[in-house]
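does this look right to u?? pyridoxal-5'-phosphate version
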Amino acid sequence: MKVPLIKTSLPGPKASEFIRADAEFVSPSYTRIYPLVVEKARGLWVQDVDGNRFLDFTAGIAVNSTGHCHPEVVEAIREQAGDLIHMSGTDFYYRSQIVLAKKLAEIAHMTGGARVFFGNSGAEAVEASFKLARYHTRREQMIAFFGAFHGRTMGALSLSASKAYQKKYYHPFVPGVTHAPYPNCYHCPQGACYPTCGSACVRWIEDPLFRTSIPPEEVAAIFVEPIQGEGGYIVPPPEFHAELSKLAKKYGILLVADEIQSGMGRTGKMFAMEHFGVEPDVIALAKGIASGMPLGAMIANTELMDWHAGSHASTFGGNPISCRAALVTIDLLQKGLIENAEIRGRQLMAGLQEMQKGFECMGDVRGKGLMVGVELVKDRITKQSAPDLRDLMVQSAFHSGLLLLGCGESTIRFCPALTISAEEIDTGLSIFEETLRKLAG
Ligand SMILES: Cc1ncc(COP(=O)(O)O)c(C=O)c1O
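got this back:
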């Protein structure tokens, strides 16, 4: 069985050299969590430039859905690079983009069919959704949620309301965006209790929002993450999305599901919205769609795709290599990885829930499939967040060879590749438990 192997101090000598150069030449806007300088990676395992080996529970921020450098993905990339690297789908046709669009339209199962727009990132998929919603409805207003993260370009950032520092000094934003409370039942924004709240978060949109300040007939779209990612891996109650969808339909508002983090099999279904039995009008995708190749996609119901030629495009969007990588990724997901995400997710969740019994600081353990969060708190009565402990945990786990990431105020997210094995889950759990014992035992 493979285990992490840390043979130098961290960062090691070569990593330290790169980090010094990075500090001189690379934009300081990136949030580097720990001093990991990656040389190569395979499956769940990452090797740094000094030869240290880490177990990766981040998958490059929920991107490497099929594991690092899956041989079938690598083969498809190699083959495609030998045939055609770029031709620009904005102006020319090529096979892989068309085949992938057909595949995405199929897996979206939208009533009446779907068509696909390609970009290079999550933010671009969200921008496309924003523009299509305005174009199709001729309405200006958008609703998104507190805690949401939709990306960093100006439209996507206008929809985001996750951390104020991400928006600092960038005002004014795109006008017409209003944020509503997201149903975080562990810290109910309405001070209510589930289920007696009766979907108070959805009701809030109708009253007071629509009653007092935004006429619903001026709202183009509601943007929602089926499970909030960056905001803290927050799973809404089972009926939330169905109620939201009902409200949207009542007023002719489009429902845009941002599945950029929750999609592509991560939660044990191809799209997380399937857990909630809701068919959105638009799905925004990126991250896990092409196993690490840059690709964003907006899947929209065919009847919405009424924009004219030239109204939106992106030179690199739907690049042939990314499209080939996505086709292999989807094939691997359908041939067992979605199922594995569900099974290994249950194992991970059960292990964390068992661990929770022994640690007061593990306030909430939540998630679906391999999108799992552990919210750390000072104690379970006050539920006061423990961001310092969370940050220490992430640092300390790194030094023990386990790569983790935070999200929300004091949550640790577990988003490993969907190829993860039972042994790898156990190894991650035992390092996590040891680290907790050291810091909070
Ligand atoms: C839910 C969600 N939407 C959008 C984005 C933005 O994606 P990108 O960084 O590829 O622009 C992210 C990235 O973390 C995300 O998690």
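The first strand starts at residue 38 and ends at 42. idk if thats expected tbh
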